[in-house]
Amino acid sequence: MFLNSSKSLTDGDYGDRMKITGVNSYIVRNPWKKWVFIELETDDGSVGYGEATVFNGQFSVSSRLKDVSKFIIGKDPMNVRRLISEWFVSTFNRAHDMVNVALMSGVEAACWDIIGKHHGSPVYEILGGPVNERIRVYANGWYTAINEVEDWARAAKNVKNRGYTALKFDPFGAGSGFLSNDEFKRSMEIIRIVHDEVGDDVEMLIEGHGRFNRSMALRIGKELEKYENIGWFEEPVIPEDIEGLAILSRSLRVPIAAGERFITRYDFVEPFTKGAIHIAQPDVINTGGIIETLSIGAMAEAHNIAMAPHQAEGPINTFITLNVDAVLGNLKIQEMFDEFAYPQWAWDIVSARPEVSNGYVKLPRKPGIGIDLRDKVKEYLATEKDPDFNLFAAGWEKRGFS
C-alpha cells in the first residue's frame, strides 16, 4: 500500500522518484456548466485525471495553469501531501482564490489517481478502506423538462420509479430576496405536488441556492415543517451569512444544509462552532481536494454534523467524490446528477459511469479514482462563446436541454 512504499514520503528532495512531466486541461462544453478536466503525465508513462470545474470561471482555471505549473512539473505525484502543501503555502491568496483552490483539487485528485493505479487499488482502499460499501444517493437535475407546474408530478414519479429514495429540487424559479405572493404560492404548490406524487417514503431536499433574506427563508422554512419527509433546506440564505444560517437552524425543525461554496476547511470552522448547519455539503473541487474534504469530514464528525458532499460538476468529480464518500464515517447521502442532467455524449468521453440501483451507487472498483478520459473528449471542447446558465434567470431549470 501507499504508506508502506519503500520510498519515503518525506525525502528531502525528489531525487530519482517518479516526476510529473506534463499537466493539461480540457474544457468541455456541457450545456449548463462547462467542465474542466485535468490530466497529469509522468516520466514513467503514468497518467492521472482530476477535475477543476469552477462555475463561470472555467477558462480562468485553464489559463492559471501557466502560473502554477512551477508547483506541479518535476514534483512526485506519490507525495501528494507535500506537493499540495508547498503549493498552498506559496500562494499569497491561499483559500481566498477559488480558481487556485479548484486547480489544487484537480491536480491532487490526478495524483491520487496515479497513486491508486501504481498500487493497483481504488483510492478509497489506499485511504484506509471503505466504511461504506455502497453509497445512498439522491437525484438532482431531474426537472429539466418542466414547462407547467403539473409537469413536476410526472418528473418526480420518474425519479421514484428509478428507485431513488431522495430527490432535490429548487422550486423557486428565478426568485431572489423576497418572493412575491404569486411566486410564494407557486413554489409551495410545486412542493405539494411533488410530495403528493412521491409520498413520505421519499425524502424531499429543498434547494435554496442562497436566494433569500432571513425573513423570507424563515417563512419558507415554516411551510416546510408541515411535511414529514423534508430532509433539509439547503442554502436558504447566502452562505456568507453564517449568523443567518444559525438563526434558521435554531428556529426551524427542518435541518439546514450548506457548504458547497465554502473554500477549504477554514470556511467550515464558524458554521460548525456556531451550530449554523446540521448537514455539511463540501464540494471536493471547492474545498481543495480529497485530503481537505476528509479533514472537513472529521471536523464535522467532532461536531456531530452529517456529511452530504455536493457534486454538480462532471463525471470525473463524481468518481472522485465517491472515493471520499467510501471512507466518511458520518456520510448521510451523495448528490447525483449523472443520470438526469448530463448530455448523452458525456459517456463517450469517459471510461466509466456510476452504477446506480435502488437509490444506491456502487463503489468504483478499478484502480485509481476509477475513471479515465478518452481521446474523444477533444471533439467536445468548449469555446468562450458557449454559455453557462444563470440561476436567477427565468427558465434556468431546463439547464440548456430544452
UniProtKB/TrEMBL annotation:
SMART domains: MR_MLE
Boundaries of every Mandelate racemase/muconate lactonizing enzyme C-terminal domain copy: 149-255
Gene3D superfamilies in the record: Enolase-like C-terminal domain, Enolase-like, N-terminal domain
Keywords, in A-Z order: Lyase
Protein name as it appears in the record: Muconate cycloisomerase related protein
GO molecular function ontology, one term from the record: lyase activity
Pfam families: MR_MLE_C, MR_MLE_N
tRNA-binding listed as a keyword: no
Keyword Metal-binding in annotation: no
Species: Thermoplasma acidophilum (strain ATCC 25905 / DSM 1728 / JCM 9062 / NBRC 15155 / AMRC-C165)
